[in-house]
Design brief:
The complex is a heterodimer. By secondary structure, chain A is an alpha/beta fold. In chain A, 41% of the residues lie in helices and 23% in strands. The longest helix of chain B is centred in the middle third of the chain and has 34 residues. Classes of the chains: A alpha/beta, B mainly alpha. The complex binds adenosine-5'-triphosphate (ATP) and magnesium ion.
Chain lengths: 323, 162
């Protein structure tokens, strides 16, 4: 759906911000752009909606170069969350959120419903904030309004530049979960800039890791963590990359390849089969016994899980190339 | 602004005399229009130019046309500065309007003008005070309009910086 073909960006003839980047994003895919500050994430993102010109190469959207689209129409179909929120100080929150539907000329009833829906989604009271101005909101609230504004006209493509950067961990986690939830329902094609590897692993179908303007590895979170193809990748994701990879799998995933001992005693600590392996391990480490009990959604016991079994599973995964 | 008003009025006398309008209302009117351009244009330019680049970026990014960006974002956010320019121009014009009495354009300046030639200080003071009151009243009204026109944020900016 979005094809980056040998894309390069040079500012003022000498600052090489993006160097020969090529990769494809399929429709409905959630792709995270990640890398150290200044590696060219924002530059790459902004070439998609033509806020920056492409110096060399091309970005092809549904078979057509982004250069050949009508910029204004194209941008209205791409929700854009700017790194520094960029709300309009002269407009109320409602006008800010509904700016694209207003430009598109939606009718009143549809707009009112949409406003209510979006505010509920980002966890802000629709009526309370309606007539307020952006400067009357906290930084985190402003950032959420920025996300709501980008989602307003339900665009098929979202370009998000560190949308959750300024949020506290609780709200951040909630918005991440909400966003994944929306994504499961509506399947937008998303290019999402982050500098947080945990966020990338949690949210992305694919991760594009960049350094000094170059694309180092474009892969699934599991492969980025378990099969780094470059020293920089393993450095960037951290020494705890195996531990991080454990949040990609649930106990249920483990059950597919490993059989548990079904002999359960009622005294053991319990985890649900939807629990991530990372959390299961944490529970295991916090109990004195070497085992925990696994139950299904209806609390029926499935069997007992040990640290050895988790290790066995991870070795299995690390052995599989291209998971 | 660098040309003194009385000089500008003087320059226009021979030019406009060619169409028989050397003195009177027309040259005064032209001078006032010319003088009001400067603060208004300069402030409008500064207001739009100084807009936070992120905001202009966001306007482009969500798909506003150049005109929509100008009308919905740039002008409203530059409004305090634009209005300040209009206020400066208006007060300036009231002052220059008084001087224009020297070339027979009439108005409150006539009181001052005649007061000086008749060495009647009461007349001069009455004229000067009237011109001042006019300037203050008009400025206050414009300020009220400005407050109505600009949203809270932009106003606060103005209050802090002025
Ligand atoms: N408009 C510009 N003019 C000149 N140089 C620029 C411009 N924008 C970005 N750069 C440079 O290009 C490089 C990449 O910048 P970019 O903003 O794309 O990085 P980033 O990965 O988004 O960084 P961050 O994580 O800090 O947001 C940097 O060296 C930056 O200084
Ligand atoms: Mg950036």
């Amino acid at each position: 759906m979005i094809k980056f073909q040998n894309v390069s960006k040079t500012y003022n003839g000498n600052v090489k911000a993006v160097k020969d980047v090529s990769f494809n994003i399929e429709a409905g895919e959630f792709v995270i752009l990640i890398g150290p500050s200044g590696c060219g994430k924002t530059s790459l993102l902004r070439m998609v909606n033509q806020l920056e010109t492409i110096t060399e190469g091309d970005i092809v959207l549904n078979g057509k170069s982004v250069r050949d689209f009508n910029k204004i129409e194209m941008r209205r179909k791409m929700g854009y969350v700017i790194q520094s929120n960029g709300l309009f100080p002269n407009m109320t929150i409602e006008d800010n959120v509904m700016i694209v539907p207003n430009l598109l000329g939606w009718d009143k009833v549809k707009k009112r419903q949409r406003y209510q829906y979006l505010m509920d989604l980002i966890g802000l009271n629709p009526d309370e904030y309606k007539k307020r101005y952006p400067h009357q909101l906290s930084g985190g609230q402003q950032q959420r309004i920025g996300v709501a504004r980008a989602l307003a006209a339900d665009p098929p493509i979202m370009l998000m530049d560190e949308p959750f950067g300024a949020l506290d961990p609780i709200i951040r986690t909630r918005l991440q979960d909400e966003f994944l939830q929306i994504q499961r329902e509506v399947q937008k094609t998303i290019l999402f800039v982050s500098h947080d590897i945990d966020e990338a692993v949690k949210m992305g179908d694919k991760i594009a890791l960049m350094r000094h303007g170059e694309l180092i590895q474009y892969d699934t979170p599991a492969n980025i963590l378990l099969h780094p193809r470059h020293e920089f990748v393993s450095e960037f994701v951290g020494e705890d990359r195996v531990l991080k990879s454990m949040s990609l799998y649930t106990v249920k995933d483990l059950l597919e390849s490993i059989t548990l001992d079904t002999n359960v005693s009622s005294t053991q600590q319990t985890v649900h089969e939807q629990t991530t392996l990372r959390n299961a391990l944490s529970v295991l480490l916090s109990t004195n016994s070497q085992k925990i009990k696994v139950v299904d959604i209806e609390e029926r016991p499935i069997g007992t899980l040990t640290i050895d079994q988790i290790e066995q599973f991870l070795q299995l995964k690390a052995g599989q190339k291209g998971a | 602004m660098t040309i003194p008003s009385i000089a500008l009025l003087g320059i226009m006398i021979p030019i406009l005399s060619t169409i028989g309008q050397g003195i009177g209302f027309l040259p005064a009117f032209i001078a006032l229009v010319l003088y009001s351009q400067l603060p208004i244009i300069r402030n409008t330019y500064a207001g739009i130019n100084n807009l936070d680049p992120n905001i202009r970026d966001a306007a482009n990014g969500i798909g506003m046309s150049t005109w929509q960006r100008l009308l919905k974002v740039e002008i409203p956010n530059a409004m305090p500065l634009i209005m300040a320019g209009i206020r400066t121009a208006t007060v300036l014009n009231i002052g220059i309007g008084a001087i224009a009495a020297f070339i027979g354009a009439g108005g409150l300046g006539v009181l001052i003008n005649q007061g000086i030639s008749r060495t009647n200080s009461t007349m001069v003071i009455v004229g000067a005070i009237s011109v001042s009151i006019l300037a203050i009243v008009v400025d206050t009204i414009l300020k009220m309009i400005q407050n109505k026109l600009t949203p809270i944020k932009v106003n606060q900016h103005k209050e802090v910086s002025s």
